[in-house]
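Following the same procedure, backbone shapes were mapped to integers, yielding the entry below.
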Amino acid sequence: MNMKDYLDQLESKTLEFKEDLPSSRRLAQTVCAFANGAGGKLIIGVRDEPREIMGIASDKVIDYEERISNTIFDSIKPTVSMRVTTHHLGEEDALLLVIEVYPGNLKPSYLKGRGG
């Protein structure tokens, strides 16, 4: 499925859109939920209501990737498998950041400090 196909879908248990990178706590909760289910994609740079492609600034990508990795590593146990990629939509001239979370092998995943 290409990025345009994802953008045409509604949010669900496996797909969420965020205009900007959520707080560390919200990010960890979403990733944890995806890992405990069938996995999922969190697409940063897209407003959900109404659906609008906002994009993110290219100079924020490295900072966002570092914040995502640190948040997930520091906040969730056991370690969650994920992949962070960028996608450029030429028609909209927008850069999107996609966090793909894989289903956990050692479920349940939980937020550190909140117990299993």
Observations:
- The domain at 3-7+14-107 is CATH 3.30.950.30 (Methyltransferase, Cobalt-precorrin-4 Transmethylase; Domain 2).
- The chain has a mean pLDDT of 91.
- The chain has three helices and eight strands.
- Residues 61-75 form the longest helix (15 residues).
